[in-house]
Each structure stands twice: as structure tokens, then as C-alpha cells.
Amino acid sequence: MVEQYKNILVAVDGSEQSYDALREAIETAQANDSQLKILYVLNDKLANIPVHLDTMTLYKSVQEHSDYVVDQVQGYLKDTEVSFEIVRLTGSPKREIINYSKENNIDLIVLGSTGLDAIDRFIIGSTTQYIVNHASCNVMVVK
């Protein structure tokens, strides 16, 4: 077991469970005097939308959601002294979380037990399950 976490990654998607994970990650970062990385991954499945949809409207909506989530995250952190960085990526959330954690020497990943991606969870299993099985560091799942 790690005595002290130095680099903590929390993934947020705008779900209440991800904000619960964020609160837990903030507390853990404060207790360990850690650097907190907050990761928002825009699911690249949106690039494969049907042609009949107005792609500019969809893109604008997705950007607005991303901006909203980042604003919410900043609100949670504004009265803390936690050192943090917000990172936005595009791709498969579960793969981007794993890749980012390996490339950035993350020693703890904090996730909500469920998130917004119900279709992915139904078809191929949850992002959280994938992270738990593939992470090279400790994973904290917040219910």
C-alpha cells in the first residue's frame, strides 16, 4: 500500500457520482498534500453520429456540457488549497484514463461507481470496471 499519494487523478463526466468522486479526491489530496489532476474525456463516439443530425448543434451542445462540468469542478476547488490541473481529452474515456494515468505517474485514480455512459456500461461493461482491471496504480471507487 502506498504510504502517501502524490499524484491523484479523478475523472469527471458531469454525473453526480463523478462529483462525489471529486469531493473524495479533494479530501484525499488535502490529506496527502498531493497534486490533483481532474480529467474530462469527451467520448469520441460522438464523431460517429448519424449524418442527418445537425453536427454543429451537437458539437456546440457537447462543448457547452464540457464547459459546464469544468465550471462545476472549479467551484468545488475554489475554497481549497489543493494544487490542481484540469485536463480535457477526446477519445474512449476508459482508455484515455488508463493512458493518462500511465503517462503522468498517477499513483491513485478516483472514480465514481457509475457515470453518464449507460450505453457503454450495458454493451461492454462499465468504465469503472475497466479502470479497476487495467490500472497500474491503486483505484478508489466512490459510491
Automatic annotation (TrEMBL):
Q: Where in the cell is it found?
A: Cytoplasm
GO cellular component annotations of the record: cytoplasm
Which SUPFAM superfamilies does the UniProt record give?
A: Adenine nucleotide alpha hydrolases-like
**Keyword terms, alphabetized:** Cytoplasm
In this protein, which residues make up the domain named UspA? 5-143
Q: Which InterPro entries match?
A: Rossmann-like_a/b/a_fold (IPR014729), Universal_stress_UspA (IPR006015), UspA (IPR006016)
Presence of keyword Protease: no
- Family of the protein in this entry: Belongs to the universal stress protein A family.
Question: What name is this protein filed under?
Answer: Universal stress protein
* Source species: Lactococcus cremoris subsp. cremoris GE214
